[in-house]
User: Which sequence fits this backbone?
């Protein structure tokens, strides 16, 4: 850390104290503003000395008078009171680095040809008669650095004696750069706001695209593995669309994607619009998306409540089912339980319908069916089918019959006398509902 006092400008000869690793030092400067020595503020003894060539090549000397390669106290401020990079030896002037080993700047002048045709030359190869405060433009010392007539040697970066530009060359150059940076920052903020608005609109468009795809994919007549592969391909395609859209907007706006101001205004605009749309309800697109999500969550909640209700009722009627299994018509196989049969009806089949829900939907559509036509949402149809299954399994006047045929193999029928029934495989898999055998004179089965 440096404590700066009244200076000639751009930190040149300005430091009155330097703190390094918890130790305080007093720097000494020469007439050009270079740090030429450090004095320990506690002991008052010199710690290090620095000697420079005309173009800034330095020699470091420790307190014992020995030449050292690096500062033993870790002082980075030396030539022109600027910070020296320890790895390269380059000096940072604020706008570009200077390489003392070859007496040239490492990059071109930010002001282009304002300081002459050579964009890399340091002080027109005449560093004894001029100085460069920020890495922009060379400026002559006042009164030829005559300490007797002008103890300050020069006055900031103001230079009414500049051989290149005339009065106030340094101040004018600095003001020009500051204004250019201000314009760039303002445009970056504007571009970020525009991109943030674009993100807000496209995010809702992609949300509707995802919802529409999910609804259509669920009704496809294909295996679960195929559906997963389709969904993965869709996710990759949508990610590519988003990346391409971002690249297009950034290219159109002509802004660097890594610009911190641009990204801050982009994310801030998107967040503000999201909060405003939720609070005011002013964007129909967002309202529809929220409505669809709520409807989906409500359906999941209904299905969960129905599943818990049926499971509780089946458990409470376990004793009734066990008693009804011992009718004159037969008994359930010993390996089948009422809980197993009830759960078999809840297995998901197609389109979100359970085995019981799908069987009811297909069976009730038949003419003269004894089953009431299924109505409502998918979760409501599933609940109606499970209630019918529960009624058959717990009815006190039921008959149980084991049989087999070529289509279903070994199966078990559970049927209310003169009423509807249900068929299971001997392994406990739900096959379908059945109508009253006696009422229609034949067996009607609706399976999956």
Assistant:
């Amino acid at each position: 850390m440096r404590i700066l006092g009244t200076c000639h400008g751009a930190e040149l000869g300005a430091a009155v104290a330097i703190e390094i690793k918890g130790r305080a030092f007093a720097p000494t400067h020469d007439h050009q503003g270079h740090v030429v020595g450090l004095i320990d503020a506690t002991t008052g003894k010199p710690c290090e000395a620095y000697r420079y060539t005309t173009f800034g090549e330095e020699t470091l000397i420790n307190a014992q008078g020995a030449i050292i390669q690096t500062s033993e106290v870790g002082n980075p401020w030396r030539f022109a009171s600027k910070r020296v990079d320890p790895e390269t030896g380059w000096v940072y002037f604020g706008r570009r680095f200077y390489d003392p080993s070859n007496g040239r700047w490492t990059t071109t002048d930010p002001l282009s040809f304002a300081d002459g045709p050579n964009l890399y030359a340091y002080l027109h190869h005449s560093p004894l008669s001029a100085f460069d405060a920020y890495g922009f433009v060379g400026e002559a010392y006042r009164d030829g650095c005559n300490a007797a007539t002008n103890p300050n040697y020069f006055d900031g970066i103001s230079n009414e004696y500049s051989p290149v530009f005339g009065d106030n060359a340094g101040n004018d150059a600095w003001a020009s750069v500051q204004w250019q940076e201000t314009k760039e920052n303002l445009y970056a903020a504007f571009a970020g706001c525009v991109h943030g608005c674009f993100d807000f609109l496209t995010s809702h468009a992609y949300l509707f695209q995802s919802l529409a795809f999910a609804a259509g994919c669920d009704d496809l007549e294909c295996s679960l593995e195929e559906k997963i592969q389709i969904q993965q391909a869709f996710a990759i395609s949508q990610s590519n669309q988003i990346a391409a859209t971002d690249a297009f907007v950034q290219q159109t706006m002509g802004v660097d994607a890594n610009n911190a101001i641009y990204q801050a205004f982009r994310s801030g605009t998107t967040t503000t619009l999201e909060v405003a749309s939720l609070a005011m309800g002013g964007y129909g697109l967002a309202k529809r998306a929220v409505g669809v999500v709520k409807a989906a969550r409500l359906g999941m909640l209904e299905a969960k409540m129905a599943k818990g209700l049926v499971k509780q009722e089946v458990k409470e009627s376990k004793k009734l089912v066990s008693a009804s299994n011992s009718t004159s018509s037969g008994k359930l196989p010993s390996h089948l339980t009422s809980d197993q049969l009830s759960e078999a009806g809840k297995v998901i089949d197609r389109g979100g319908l359970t085995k019981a829900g799908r069987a009811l939907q297909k069976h009730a559509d038949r003419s003269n069916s004894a089953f009431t036509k299924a109505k409502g949402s998918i979760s409501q149809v599933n609940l109606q089918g499970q209630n019918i299954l529960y009624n058959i399994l717990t009815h006190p006047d039921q008959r149980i019959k084991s049989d087999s045929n070529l289509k279903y193999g070994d199966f078990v029928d559970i049927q209310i006398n003169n009423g509807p029934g249900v068929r299971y495989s001997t392994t406990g898999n739900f096959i379908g509902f059945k109508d009253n055998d006696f009422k229609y004179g034949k067996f009607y089965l609706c399976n999956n």
User: Anything to note?
Assistant: The two ends are 80 Å apart (CA to CA).
